[in-house]
Amino acid sequence: MKTNEGRFFEDYAVGQVIAHAVPRTVGAGERALYHALYPARHALYSADTFAQGCGLAASPLDDLIAFHTVFGKTVPDISLNAVANLGYAEGRFLQPVWPGDTLRSTSEVIGLKQNSNGKTGVVWVRTRGENQRGQAVLDYIRWVMVRKRDADAPAPETVVPELKPALAAEDLVVPAGLDFSTYDFTAAGEPHRGGDYAVGEIIDHVDGVTVEEAEHMMATRLWQNTAKVHFDATNREDGRRLIYGGHVISLARALSFNGLANAQMIAGINAGAHANPCFAGTTVRAWSEVLDKAETTAPGVGALRLRLVATGADHALGELRGEDGKYRPGILLDLDYWALLPV
Amino acid sequence: MKTNEGRFFEDYAVGQVIAHAVPRTVGAGERALYHALYPARHALYSADTFAQGCGLAASPLDDLIAFHTVFGKTVPDISLNAVANLGYAEGRFLQPVWPGDTLRSTSEVIGLKQNSNGKTGVVWVRTRGENQRGQAVLDYIRWVMVRKRDADAPAPETVVPELKPALAAEDLVVPAGLDFSTYDFTAAGEPHRGGDYAVGEIIDHVDGVTVEEAEHMMATRLWQNTAKVHFDATNREDGRRLIYGGHVISLARALSFNGLANAQMIAGINAGAHANPCFAGTTVRAWSEVLDKAETTAPGVGALRLRLVATGADHALGELRGEDGKYRPGILLDLDYWALLPV
Amino acid sequence: MKTNEGRFFEDYAVGQVIAHAVPRTVGAGERALYHALYPARHALYSADTFAQGCGLAASPLDDLIAFHTVFGKTVPDISLNAVANLGYAEGRFLQPVWPGDTLRSTSEVIGLKQNSNGKTGVVWVRTRGENQRGQAVLDYIRWVMVRKRDADAPAPETVVPELKPALAAEDLVVPAGLDFSTYDFTAAGEPHRGGDYAVGEIIDHVDGVTVEEAEHMMATRLWQNTAKVHFDATNREDGRRLIYGGHVISLARALSFNGLANAQMIAGINAGAHANPCFAGTTVRAWSEVLDKAETTAPGVGALRLRLVATGADHALGELRGEDGKYRPGILLDLDYWALLPV
């Protein structure tokens, strides 16, 4: 067999380190495509002049370009046989990615738990993205449910890693040089500072985007994500292509500009659930809830912990779960993250 | 309210200057996407070598990339609540945009006229796009019909600006260094000089392009144009997404290569009407009429005033209006512009 | 007539040299779009670091970007009135294309043969692509069937060029500096060296991609290929847009990563047939057959001659032709090429 059939549950062992294939140089082209595929407008990622006014050398590539690229490399090794992408935790953005940087990914298996049905198990990995200088740009924990190759294979010792429910503000890494003390609110598009947001506040981002097959496939390929289910209409019985969950993250984050234009940079991902599948033809909208507020040691830079919710059919602000405690059918994404904004 | 609901008619005052948000750095990625989204082939925007042979340092970004980017920034402030985009006048391209340039836009309100129904009014603005060196790259007048927030709000004093029906050739700005005296007609693709075109001549550009939803949305997002009607299939009662008028301009201009390959640069926009809406599935064609000819002081550089017409269902050369004086239903665009070409 | 109606059979003469119009500068944007449009993952074209580890200055643009760009320029002169694209031979990649290079194309007519029906004829051309330094980056022979303008025009003298059935390994040009002696198999994604492949071996590339209209049109426009049939849904009686054959080549080549991840560079194209038309909605898959193996004089660099087959409806490994000797209806592409890989 010359082709990669992916790893099955019994192929993982706690402590195992997997160097994922195909490093990737990203630059001006990926940046333009990101703007074509998502209604992205956060000024720090739109204009060199704005980024320079915030103490950076130039406009970095969008944080989520880094995330999707690092994530995409892990798919052939981690989630090719995954039944479900269960969650994210402790995601930290450690270094901006600049045009011309080359990213590669490594994952360490940090947890394993066979399911009681004996056919599947849960694998926890800590994935780290690095640039060509060997600097970490991103790390995060992800756990997925993976099929066993052989249902009779013995169960491994159960190891369930202890995960922080959320990063503390002190865990966040503010990019070197970032300074919001002379922040240009007019150029950024909204006047709201950190102090203008209240914990518990809910913001309707108003706009909607109806998603097309060509768009989500182009995005997902751009991140070299190879999961068949996104590209091959013959793969599922219903003949539908499942949209990569990260596409919905980027759409929702871009839509959140309207109301959160100053939440410029993503500093951490506390948790995330792809609550329901998304398909082409869906009109995606978003709302956010302010979960927490914090300060940082960088000049003028504060942090906002936000719940970013993407909705499909049913856009009910603040309503996440039904009476049964499960996500409502219209919820596509529930993402808990930290953003940096002017205090 | 944290989100932008846009300005209503009573929010404008003559003399008001609006600095539009989110500057944008454009470069090699936007250039490639422009070529992927439109069948653009004018050699000056295709090849550094050709542009250098015309006296420029390198190939600038397509004029319409500059126009769409500058225009896109104005949407949240000018046309979010617009009922109709009524016209353009006195558009001048003042400076090429180079890869790496950062563009921002400012508009001054130069006219206001409440409609007799009391529910809407017309707003005239002069918009100026600037690069990161503070040089104007483009200015143009646009007028739109905007809803009133409150029908009982008093009408402002009527100010209707006097607009030139067309720019004179002397008003056109030829880019510094442009020299067509050693122009390479073989590389450009056609042998026709300015002298080969006659006023009144009509050129059928022959080719057609059937438009897809993914394409016009990617283009419109690339210019950070946020008008809901282009992206959200639930926005209109008929469930159709309206294609950004600028998408049709770029399509028609690109199609006009076939017959006008040497009309390399757009120097001015005299007038423009989006005569009928365009939707995905339409096969767009184009024809041009030569309206005027002029000389410039730059070596070998002449100017052609052209009417560029995009058609949908009904491609009848030279037939613009029906017996009632209104645009025929198959007309999508009627654009009056000046182009620079070798004499 | 200002517009190009294309050349007809009687417009060609053996020995005629046609300089094709519109040179094109390619770079980071084309590279990103290539990755968005095809599931391309060969590491040498994905990461500067990987290419540098193979002795190159940086990651060149994908070989097929060079091919499509050079090919696209020939369409207005060679195949605008073509009835069929009959074949390729003796294609050699002579020089990598780097971001910022400007490509132009020239074709020499090397054969002519009027068909017995008197209405069409076959034209053979040798096309050469050059960069801005005047270096050849690519040359290949193509032959097409072209309509006559006038069925009564006299037949030219028949000249049928002698074509090599395949390039010999000695005919291949290995890029200056290429060195696979310290090749990083982990980063490349697969462990298989040249020695691991056997002549006659067939590899199923497993993955499938369902093609969308927006994707193939964006790709084909990006190469400035103007053939109407790809863009205009009113052009054919069945209302379908024919997908550019080169789009299927790039799709199949990208899919072949899975099993041929180390077949990094295309060095030669021996033959190629677009066996059946491809339309949007088709799920394209691919398989390869190892036809030959060879060494080169570059350190660690071997060559594999491969048959790359793209399939649509019917993915039967190794089954190319039916009992009638014709391509099976599910075969889209049969491409015979040489690739460079670590020995």
SSE pattern of chain A, N- to C-terminal: EEHHHEEEEHEEHHHEEEE
Tell me how many strands of chain A there are.
Answer: 12
Q: Beta fraction of the residues of chain A?
A: 25-35%
N- and C-termini, Cα separation of chain A: 57 Å
CATH-derived architecture of the largest domain in chain A: Roll
- Could you give me the name of the CATH homologous superfamily of the largest domain in chain A? Hotdog Thioesterase
Low-confidence stretches of chain A: none
* Whole-angstrom Rg of chain A: 20 Å
Query: Which structural class do the helices and strands of chain A define?
Result: alpha+beta
Short description:
The structure is a homotrimer of 343-residue chains. The first copy, chain A, has helices at 28-37, 48-53, 63-78, 185-188, 213-222, 245-255, 257-260, and strands at 17-19, 24-25, 82-93, 102-114, 120-130, 136-147, 202-204, 209-210, 265-273, 283-295, 301-311, 331-342.
Describe the 3D structure.
3 copies of one chain form a homotrimer. Chain A contains 7 helices and 12 strands. Chain A has 343 residues and is an alpha+beta fold. The first copy, chain A, folds into 2 domains: 1-26 and 61-163, Thiol Ester Dehydrase, Chain A; 175-343, Thiol Ester Dehydrase, Chain A, CATH 3.10.129.10. In chain A, strands 1, 2, 3, 4, 5, 6, 7, 8, 9, 10, 11 and 12 form a 12-stranded antiparallel sheet that branches. In chain A, a hairpin with a 5-residue loop joins β4 and β5. In chain A, α1 (28-37) packs antiparallel against α5 (213-222). The first copy, chain A, is globular. Chain A starts with 16 loop residues before the first strand and ends with a strand. The mean pLDDT of chain A is 97. Chains A and B meet through α1, α2, α4, β8 and α5 of A and β2, α1 and α5 of B.
